[in-house]
Amino acid sequence: SALLGAVCCLHRLELARPSSAPTVEVCASPSGECSADAKPPGVDELTARLFNRSYLVFRGAVPQDKVARAVHAMERPRWSLGASPGGAQRVMEVLELDPVFAEMIAELPEGIVKIADKVLAEYWQLGSLHGHVIHPEGRALNQTERENKGRMALHSDFPYGHATQEFGGSLTSVPEQFPYTLQLIWILSPFTATSGSTLIYPGSHVNRELLRDRFEPGFYEKFVANAVQVLGEPGDIILYVGQAWHLWGVNEASHKRVAVLGQVLPFFFKHMESHVTKTPEYVVRRMPPLARQRLGFAKEAWFKHPKRLLPLPRSQLEGAECLLDMLVVGYEGPMDLEGIIKKIPGLPEGVPELLVLVASIFFQTNRLLAVIFLFGPLVLWSCVRCGCRCCCCRFTCGKRCGLESLRTALCHVLLIFLGMVFGVTLLL
Predict the structure, then answer these.
(1) What is the sign of the dihedral through the CA atoms of 61, 162, 196 and 227?
(2) Is 285 within 8 Å of 227 (Cβ atoms)?
(3) CA–CA separation, 314 and 297 (whole Å)
(4) By three-state DSSP, how is residue 209 classified?
(5) Is 200 in contact with 242 (CB distance < 8 Å)?
(6) What pTM does this model have?
(7) Which segments within 114-241 are labelled E, that is strand?
(8) pLDDT (tens digit, 9 = 90+) per residue, 373-385?
(9) Strand order in the sheet with 228-229
(10) How many C-beta atoms lie closer than 10 Å to residue 148's C-beta?
């Protein structure tokens, strides 16, 4: 047993070992072409480049075997419903899919770690980690379609980018006393000129001005005139300033554009995803120690949501909670439907309000139908008790449908509920 323990410890140390130093590049031309350094630059030079151009590219930072494992894990339909052609799919809870994602965190290149230490201070944390898949369009788009998709994708990142007018806040710039945040993109499939690679406006973070509203006239045009397309191969990592204006491109290639997104924050910042409070304990235990530290699983984080201790995948539990919330209270999600509809240009007066009303009626009707369907077996069982008749079964409806007992009816309700939970889980 002692020998086995030693082997396990060595294995964990191996997982936490940083990858060999990758080639560092920074795109300096509008075409996105990069040139490699003759020798590795120091942290001061790297930081200066990052804050001058808004991004750096670390070539060959992730071994190809880990890239393959990550892509395979994200292709499993168990955790995320496949997006439609041209859709941007978020694959949540990747930490639960495969240990490789925690290994990628533990094995970040030394250059990235030193930059984060310098900019955010030591003990920085990843406040978010999830997969991002841009599906092929399946056809060539015209210029208007490309512009519309690009405008919808243009943004700057959490937390400041989510406190602007578009999201109900009032922030127009990053206050001087607040630090910038950093973002990571692990490239898992080719980022080419046609596959939807990331576009960044170099230097757009410098004056601390935030992208207040992507629908405001002139913002998108300003971005397009200055943006650089960041190209890369599987295994590369893009590091960029989160407050820089950027977007994911339109994928008109024949393959999916697959990546993992990570958000690097000072340790005292609120996390966008609550990995510390919601990740199952069995997933935390298999992480390399360095990954646990960088995700915020410190010794003082003893306060945990009770369900985090259950040895079950998180998504099914959240699916049940989300379904109950939708059925009992109603659920619109993070989408500000009224705000989005009012921003659609060219709508006649009074039409936005009408569209909001129609959408609300549609959502509430769907909720009512779901409730009726869920409790349908109990309704049919009550027909037996009352001796009623209904057209769907012609005779005493409960008996014809095999619902003579309350227990049978409740079993049917449970099966329907579990089916709904499964459906909601796929959408989470």
Answers:
(1) negative
(2) no
(3) 17
(4) strand
(5) no
(6) 0.75
(7) 125-134, 182-187, 198-200, 228-229, 237-241
(8) 898 888 877 776 6
(9) 228-229, 198-200, 246-248
(10) 14
Q: Could you report the per-residue pLDDT of 20-50, keeping only the tens digit for each? A: 556 656 543 334 445 556 677 889 999 999 9
Walk me through the domains of the chain, giving residue ranges and CATH numbers: 2-309 (2.60.120.620), 318-427 (no CATH)
Question: Per the structure block, which two tokens stand in for 233?
Answer: 């191969």
Contact 196, 248 (CB under 8 A): yes
Span 48-63, pLDDT tens digits: 999 999 999 999 999 9
**Among the listed residues 182, 51, 79, the one whose alpha carbon sits nearest the alpha carbon of residue 126:** 182
> Which of these, 72, 304, 280, lies nearest to 189 by C-alpha position?
72
d(CA 179, CA 185): 20
Distance CA 336, CA 261 (A): 24
For 47, other C-beta atoms within 10 Å of its C-beta total: 18
Q: Are 266 and 179 spatial neighbours (Cβ–Cβ below 8 Å)?
A: yes
Element (H, E) at 260: strand 257-265
Judge contact between 200 and 227, C-beta under 8 A.
yes
Long-range contacts at 28-34 (CB < 8 A, ≥ 24 apart): 28/53, 29/228, 30/228, 31/229, 32/193, 32/228, 32/229, 32/230, 32/231, 34/231
